[in-house]
Design goal:
Mean pLDDT: 81
Strand content: 15-25%
Low-confidence stretches: 10-44, 133-139, 167-176, 186-192, 466-504
Number of strands: 33
Shape: globular
Number of helices: 25
Number of domains: 4
Structural class: alpha+beta
Largest sheet: 10 strands, mixed
Radius of gyration: 32 Å
Distance between the termini: 60 Å
Length: 847
């Protein structure tokens, strides 16, 4: 309670110190005149302690002032306890830190009773809120604001990392004081065995005010928050994107993709729900549905005719987030808005599925999408819309910015990833495809608006000082840089500078980062690794109803089907089925229902593909095809799938391989020599030659598959193996607890492979013991090479025979149903060891 009392006192005092800016402007101006005359002692309004004095001189910033460029600054960093901060009540920076800490600590009640001398705050700053020197690879000074005749302003944030640590010596305390504090703490908390409460990180935003004159110094530190966003700014973003990027970011009027039958929109002028004839320009909304205690209306068969009447939406109760979106559309000059709640008949089982499947067309054809990337589902409204101000300390409650220490600013590459990616909206399953399929997105967050298109991004946070009109001193060339002359003279470099000049003329526009993987950009050149990343992201999201797992992915599936000219099977592309079957999950249980176990959509836990191959690996998803897949199509019956067949780097069919005596050579470094490859594979019981010999499916298996729609039917080799912990201690007990790779052993007890990411308890319950041997069936899916890093060491150690692997699947047999199996997990077996596993050819019905 003592800590809580201290914090309350601090909060009251800091508010008085940090709130002087509106009412004391005249006094501060007068004081600044005295400072310019060299009389610093007269400035009583702003004080700094010894620790914070380095923040005062303006030469800590990399800006142009007085014709001199101040460079070389790195953020100031200090570790200080809450107790220490309270000892400097007159320091305005300490006061600002404490006020920000107190504001956010209310979310962590356990902090209130924790000793304030054990609550440590790591202060890093100032971090500049601008586009930075490195964003365009240009050596330009910081964007200071010179618009005021008396002051220089710097917009910054301060990174505060709060953590609870045992009482220890910190710089600035004497040893005697710390010993005394420790003794007092021991005397009062001897019986306290609590774990330290969790901490937090925040990046509150401030405006640093410096005087002008011969010796500029810090004379003010003001909270910098913007209650409303600027509509004209948003208009400029959209206009620039439309002019500069054309149809790449904006759908063509009357484009080749027709809108789905029964498509409806909200007419924001007439306040009604209409069914347009032909193509119209419209905006889409992505948001989280709120629980409806107030009985908000939705489109149903009973009110379709009523809601199409002019003014009808003004007579019913709809969520504030929709009414704000309607207002925003009007302000942006857009008449039509698509909202699923009011534009899809929710109780129509005929038209609703067609609308859901057509989400790809709806979001991709929208002029842009308003995305309410918020952390609440209350549906109250859009923060920052006129009449709905943001939280007065929004930056304290928003996700913290990543510090770009070298650039002494915030990391723009991570801006969307942090602010949007960690929002509650982005954790919902339905919002995944809405984000991915939208070509242009206006993210409305609690603290700012962010724009994103295929080429650029823009953040309201950066609009305080647009490069074209920020009051920058004369002579500062935005395109000036100190590069290698050869690079500067290149045509590409010169062209990029002209593009940069155009882009930076728009407030807050910046290019995507060099290392941004654009994981949420759907282009016609979509790659299989994009798909795998998306599935990993999507599978980690939350759905109110698990049965929606495929419905909420249907729009993405439709777009992939067009891009790859491939059918989709339970969320997986038929063309790349061999690769897509290699997903992994820590859960061995299935979702059930109509989803077969071989689809990632059946998993109850997030899935991943990285166990198989790192996304950045040059051999990404290059496999050796060893199986002909057939599919029990619910509408067409059993059919052979059109799966891409390949031999690692070569796209070649199994039949073509079987007609050769030698396999295609591999081109990359640390890959098996040709003679080794042929030798290893010809000795393996399952290879292209053997696969081609086993074309005929078992008639009995096909008859059983006819009763199991959605099942995969294929011939492959099957072996019974033991499952065990991969590592043991010298005492003979397992080494790890948690989730790790398990070991696979043949009947001779030899280690032959691994099972990917299995829970310790699951393995413990299934491993063989003395006198109780347990065997499980494994089937071969494909072949692959070890990851590049491991191959390198295998070659150095002359272990080339272990370079080739077989991708295998652990299956469980259905009782009383021969041939039928369900997927459990995936792993690998050493190619050379498969013959020692006593494999047998079977027709498997994987359901």
């Amino acid at each position: 309670m003592k800590a809580l009392s201290i914090l309350r006192t601090i909060k009251a005092s800091t508010k008085s110190r940090l709130s002087f800016k509106p009412s004391r402007e005249d006094e501060v101006n007068s004081q600044s005149e005295q400072i310019r005359d060299g009389n610093h002692s007269q400035l009583k309004r702003f004080n700094l302690c010894e620790r914070c004095k380095p923040w005062s001189p303006i030469d800590i910033h990399s800006i142009i002032y007085g014709g001199v460029v101040n460079t070389g600054f790195r953020p100031i960093r200090a570790d200080v306890s809450v107790e220490q901060l309270t000892r400097t009540p007159q320091c305005s920076i300490c006061a600002a830190v404490l006020e920000a800490y107190y504001e956010r600590s209310q979310e962590f009640p356990s902090l209130q009773s924790w000793p304030p001398n054990d609550i440590i705050i790591t202060i890093t700053g100032p971090l500049y809120i601008d586009q930075g020197r490195e964003q365009y690879r240009i050596e330009s000074p910081r964007q200071a604001d010179y618009s005021d005749p008396n002051f220089i302003f710097m917009r910054v944030c301060i990174k505060l990392e709060v953590k609870c640590l045992p009482c220890k010596y910190l710089e600035g305390d004497s040893k005697e004081e710390r010993v005394k504090e420790q003794r007092n703490q021991v005397a009062t908390t001897t019986s306290d065995t609590r774990e330290p409460p969790s901490g937090f990180t925040i990046t509150p935003q401030f405006r640093m005010k410096y005087t002008k004159g011969k010796t500029p110094v810090l004379c003010g530190l003001e909270w910098w928050e913007t209650p409303y966003f600027d509509i004209q700014l948003l208009r400029n973003w959209l206009k620039y994107c439309g002019d500069a990027h054309g149809t790449q970011c904006v759908a063509r009027a009357g484009g080749v993709d027709p809108l789905p039958e029964g498509f409806r929109v909200i007419d924001t002028q007439n306040m009604s729900v209409i069914q347009p004839v032909g193509y119209i320009r419209f905006v889409a909304l992505s948001y989280m549905w709120a629980c409806d205690p107030n009985g908000n209306v939705q489109l149903e068969q009973s009110n379709v005719d009523t809601l199409k009447l002019p003014g009808s939406l003004e007579k019913v109760t709809i969520p504030g987030i929709i009414t704000d979106s309607i207002t925003l559309c009007r302000d942006l000059g857009e008449r039509y808005l698509w909202v699923d709640r009011l534009c899809i008949i929710q109780d129509d089982e005929v038209t609703k599925p067609a609308q859901i499947t057509a989400m790809d067309r709806i979001y991709s054809l929208a002029t842009f999408t308003i995305i309410a990337a918020l952390n609440t589902r209350d549906g109250v409204g859009l923060p920052g819309v006129c009449g709905r101000p943001r939280h007065p300390r929004a930056s304290v409650w928003s996700h913290p910015h990543n510090a770009d220490v070298e650039g002494t600013g915030i990391d723009l590459d991570d801006l969307i990833r942090n602010v949007v990616g960690d929002s509650l909206w982005n954790k919902r399953g339905w919002t995944f495809q809405e984000r991915l399929l939208s070509k242009r997105r206006l993210y409305i967050t609690e603290s700012q608006v962010i724009f994103e298109c295929y080429e650029n991004q823009a953040a309201e946070l950066l609009t305080w000082s647009p490069p074209a009109a920020c009051g920058r001193p004369d002579g500062v060339d935005l395109l000036a840089r100190n590069d290698d002359p050869e690079e500067v003279n290149s045509v590409t470099d010169i062209n990029s500078r002209f593009e940069l000049q155009k882009a930076t003329a728009i407030p807050s526009f910046y290019e995507r980062g060099r290392y941004n993987n654009n994981s949420f950009v759907f282009k016609e050149t979509v790659l299989i690794q994009d798909y795998c990343r998306w599935v990993e992201n999507y599978s980690s999201r939350q759905l109110s109803y698990g049965s929606d797992i495929l419905n909420a992915f249907a729009g993405v599936g439709s777009s992939l089907a067009v891009a790859w000219n491939s059918k989709m099977l339970y969320g997986m592309p038929e063309k790349y089925l061999s690769v897509c079957l290699l997903w992994n999950s820590t859960s061995t249980g299935g979702r059930g229902g109509d989803i077969p176990s071989w689809s990632w959509a059946s998993s109850l836990a997030p899935i991943d593909y990285t166990w198989h191959c790192e996304f950045h690996d040059k051999d990404l998803f290059q496999i050796a095809s060893l199986v002909y897949y057939h599919y029990q199509d619910p509408s067409q019956g059993l059919r052979k799938l059109d799966v891409q067949e390949r031999w690692m780097q070569h796209e070649i069919t199994i039949e073509e391989l079987a007609k050769r005596n030698e396999l295609p050579p591999l081109q990359r470094k640390n890959t098996p020599e040709k003679w080794r490859t042929d030798k290893y594979w010809k000795e393996c019981p399952q290879n292209p030659w053997e696969t081609f010999k086993h074309l005929a499916l078992s008639p009995d298996a096909c008859n059983i598959a006819a009763m199991l729609p959605g099942s995969l039917v294929f011939n492959t080799t099957v072996a019974s193996l033991e499952i065990d912990h991969l590592h043991y201690t010298e005492e003979g007990t397992p080494k790890e607890y948690g989730v790790f790779n398990a070991g696979l052993r043949n009947k001779q007890g030899e280690g032959v492979g691994t099972l990917s990411q299995m829970e310790f308890r699951w393995v413990e319950a299934r491993r063989s013991t003395e006198g109780n041997r347990k065997y499980f069936d494994f089937i071969v899916l494909s072949g692959e090479l070890e990851k590049w890093g491991r191959r390198k060491w295998q070659y150095l150690l002359d272990q080339c025979e272990d370079t080739w692997l077989l991708d295998v699947m652990l299956v469980e047999r259905l009782p009383c149903k021969p041939f039928v199996a369900r997927r459990v997990a995936v792993g690998t077996v050493k190619l050379r060891m498969w013959k020692d596993c006593e494999p047998r050819w079977e027709t498997v019905v994987l359901c």
